[in-house]
Amino acid sequence: MNKQExxxxxxxxxxxxxxxxxxxxxxxxxxxxxxxxxVPRQISSSCGTCVQFTIDESENVPTVIADMADENVxxxxxxxxNNYNRIHF
Length: 89
Known about the structure:
Blueprint: E1 7-14, H1 17-29, E2 34-38, E3 49-56, H2 61-68, E4 73-80, E5 83-88
Antiparallel strand pairs: 1-3, 1-4, 2-3, 4-5
């Protein structure tokens, strides 16, 4: 199994666009792959921009998310196939 197969994909939504950009930048600085993207239709968001990011399953995902999420994060979703399950906020 390669590293890509061990990654779980997440979506973080925000109240304002700037927060999404800052979150992506901070995640990338910490070594995670994170990119601002339009919010998927299945998810609503205040600003229309979300951050798609991945975390390796071997990491303590709740701790990583708790460390990165602040009052500017509207919600965090885990992508499983074509569904988004809200996991935070």
